[in-house]
Amino acid sequence: MKRINTIVDAKAEIEKLKNPNCAEDDIFFQAMEEVLLSIFPLFKSDEVYSKNAKNAVIRRLITPDRVIKFKVVWMDDNNEVQVNTGYRVQFNNALGPYKGGLRFHPSVNEGILKFLGFEQILKNALTGLPLGGAKGGSDFDPKGKSDFEVMKFCKAFMRELYKHIGPRIDVPAGDIGVGGREIGYLFGEYKRMTSAFEGVLTGKPFFFGGSLMRPEATGYGVVYFTRKMLELDGKESLEGKVCTVSGSGNVALHAIEKLQQLGANPVTCTDSKGMIYDARGLDLALLKELKFVRRTSLEEYAKVHPEAAYTPVSEYPEGAHAVWDIPCYAAFPCATQNELNKKDAENLVKNGCVSVSEGANMPSTTEAIDLMLKNKICLAPAKAANAGGVAVSGFEMSQNAAMQRWSFAKVDVKLQETMEEICENVASTAKEFGVEGNYVVGANIAGFKRVADAMIAEGV
Ligand SMILES: NC(=O)C1=CN([C@@H]2O[C@H](COP(=O)(O)OP(=O)(O)OC[C@H]3O[C@@H](n4cnc5c(N)ncnc54)[C@H](OP(=O)(O)O)[C@@H]3O)[C@@H](O)[C@H]2O)C=CC1
Ligand SMILES: O=C(O)CCC(=O)C(=O)O
């Protein structure tokens, strides 16, 4: 293989890997391209990496160890047979057991899970914990399903998955469409199939060995990261500032909670159908009730609070997402991939937004990232900013292995320390490689270096 000594070589290598007949992989290449092009300063500066023709680290890193694909057959409430596809992409275990969430959403396919699994490798590396990278899930749509149907699907899913996972092999967790309820059902079935009560999943309900604060961890972690980033960059704190948030799931609502606790004023949230803009400040208790208990649309919020504006997706401005057009000091995309495009980034810049912190995985398109960096927005990339979730999953694994339970306060302190360490590491890596303030490049290089060093050390 040709050595990757120039950015042109790097681009050519990526092009060679693309399969023009597989559109599903486009999103995976988007993630890979961002990483490979931004770690170029490392290739130039360090012999070990520029000589990676010998170790083939890049080739090995971008190819999953294995992709497990299986059929999930279950019966709905009308006693009709339903068939879905289940996946687990075990991407890389150089640093520790495969680790990463499960996503249940109709859009799930192999390409999406490869993108998420690839990001997870570097994210998990940034936490400093011994965790490899993986992702899995299914095209099953939990929306509109009864609790009983969700349970039956989860149990059918686990009857296949259990063969491939284990506390030292692969430890799945939640992601979109998979929260405490689903993890509980999955854990119950794993236990039934194996008779083993062990830390094979994280995000478990507390009485099954779940860690306190895992539900809050990703959203709180994003805000802790942002607080540190603003401090390092000499910007004003979040206190008293208007913030915009997208999403209204686990990550978004806990980011809103932490923002409110720190005295900020989060004024927006979204779901797949529309956006709420409540300039007075969001009613978080109501949002939790709507989304975590009743599992209903945000439209209901405006019925309780007619002063708040509800904008359905069909009324979003042409080519943009309404939420990023609301003036804010700090923005928090916390819903899904590619939900912040170039037009949205232009709106954020125009309205004087100072920082964008990615709670969702890869929420910003490549063009949006370039535009935000060019305009000196402090951009906290997902693999650093949302690493708090997997970090607390790591703490859950430690607690399970040691048969311990840590207090909420202890986990919170450790989460804050972890997010601040990640932020400092990313900032100092960016500085070391001559791109001070560029957290995207800093995160990619710091994460890649840790994984690459382990892969080189373990040999081929
Ligand atoms: N949970 C975790 O610990 C972690 C999650 N993440 C990432 O954070 C993001 C959100 O995950 P999480 O909060 O757990 O998921 P949830 O399922 O709890 O919530 C997802 C939210 O995003 C909205 N959403 C999902 N898909 C779309 C879409 N295609 N278009 C518009 N809105 C959409 C949902 O709307 P609706 O209610 O209408 O479905 C919902 O508000 C994802 O990118 C995930 O990968 C990252 C790190 C850890
Ligand atoms: O907690 C975990 O293991 C993974 C969380 C996750 O899926 C993510 O960080 O994107």
Automatic annotation (TrEMBL):
Residues 211-459 form the Glutamate/phenylalanine/leucine/valine/L-tryptophan dehydrogenase C-terminal domain. Substrate binds at K99, Q120, K123, G174, S393. The active site is at K135. Signal peptide: none annotated. NAD(+) binds at T218, N250. GO terms for cellular component: cytosol. Keywords: NAD, Nucleotide-binding, Oxidoreductase. One of its GO terms (molecular function) is glutamate dehydrogenase (NADP+) activity. InterPro entries: Aminoacid_DH-like_N_sf, Glu/Leu/Phe/Val/Trp_DH, Glu/Leu/Phe/Val/Trp_DH_C, Glu/Leu/Phe/Val/Trp_DH_dimer, Glu/Leu/Phe/Val_DH_AS, Glu_DH, Glu_Leu_Phe_Val_DH, NAD(P)-bd_dom_sf. The record marks D175 as: Important for catalysis. GO terms for biological process: glutamate biosynthetic process. Belongs to the Glu/Leu/Phe/Val dehydrogenases family. NCBIfam families: PRK09414.1. Homohexamer. This is Glutamate dehydrogenase. It comes from Sulfurovum riftiae.
